[in-house]
Structures are given as C-alpha cells and as structure tokens.
Amino acid sequence: MHASLNQIVSHAKRAVPEPEAAARSCAWLEACGYPGIKLLLEARADERRSVNLIPDAMGLDLQNVSCVFLGPQIAAHVAQHGRVFLRNVRHGLYLVPHSVEANIGIGCPVDPAFALGGERHKNPYSEKLEIAARDGVTVDDDVWRALELI
Which of 11, 46, 97, 131 counts the highest number of beta carbons within 10 A? Predict the structure, then answer.
C-alpha cells in the first residue's frame, strides 16, 4: 500500500486519539523506514497508558508503558530537567521524532534502557522526511488494513 503522510496521520488519530502527537510520530516513523503503524497498533491494546515521571537514582522507570503515549511527556521532562536515563522502555522508537525535532541526543531506542538528552547537531532524517512528504511511503498491506479497520 502506498500512503501519504496525511493519510497515515488521519488513520493513526482514529486508532490512538491521545496524545495527538502519537499520530504525527507514527507518520514520521513510517517516513523514516520504522514500523510506526505496527507499534501504534500494539500499543493500542494496552490498558495502561500513563506513568508518573518521577526520577529516582537510576533515572526514569517507564514501567513498560508504551512511548506511543508517553513521548510528548518524556520530551517535556527532558527539556525541563535535562538528560535522563530511561528504563523499562516499550516502543522507544516513538521518542525519536521528539528527540530529533528538539535537537536532543538519544541512545538506542530499541533497547529497554537508554539515555535521552544532550545535544543533537544534525537531523539525519531530513532527506527521508522530505521525500516522504512529497511522494508518500510504502506501508505493509496487512498493517495498513489493520489500521483501516479501526
């Protein structure tokens, strides 16, 4: 299936209306070759969608709550408090769009624990995002059908 970024955002908003940034992050990830829709669909089934971001001696324990729901909250925390180590991270790829847009460094977002914060000096995704905005992206047919059925 070939979809525009706007189509992905529209369908993702129906699947997960809050936080609103989740739909934009979903399209951003798809544009950059990551499985944004697949992760969004996985997170949609989660009962637990929030956690208090209270740092302890080791950083922030996200308690396996999906970053689909926590992305904007974590980005705001880092902007206010600086670099933080995250653990028990689920769907950490949903932090990548926030970190790139805010010029914040990010560790390996597919690991269950990594750091977020510090400076980023370039956007390695800008070319992919420009192409996707212009030409759309190819989405796995089965994943797209699952999203459309919501």
Answer: 97
Q: Which residues lie closer than 8 Å to 132 by C-beta, 6 or more apart?
A: 5, 30, 31, 32
Domain count, the chain: 1
Cβ 48 vs Cβ 70: under 8 Å: no
Name the one residue in this structure whose structure tokens are 């995704």: 125
Output the CA torsion 62→49→69→88 (10° steps): 20
Residue 150 has pLDDT above 90, yes or no: no
**Residue range 33-61: mean pLDDT, rounded:** 96
Where do runs of H (alpha helix) occur along 36-149? Answer: 36-44, 67-81, 96-101, 126-135, 141-148
For 47, the domain range is 2-148
pLDDT at 120 over 90: no
Instruction: Please say whether the beta carbons of 27 and 38 come within 8 A.
Output: no
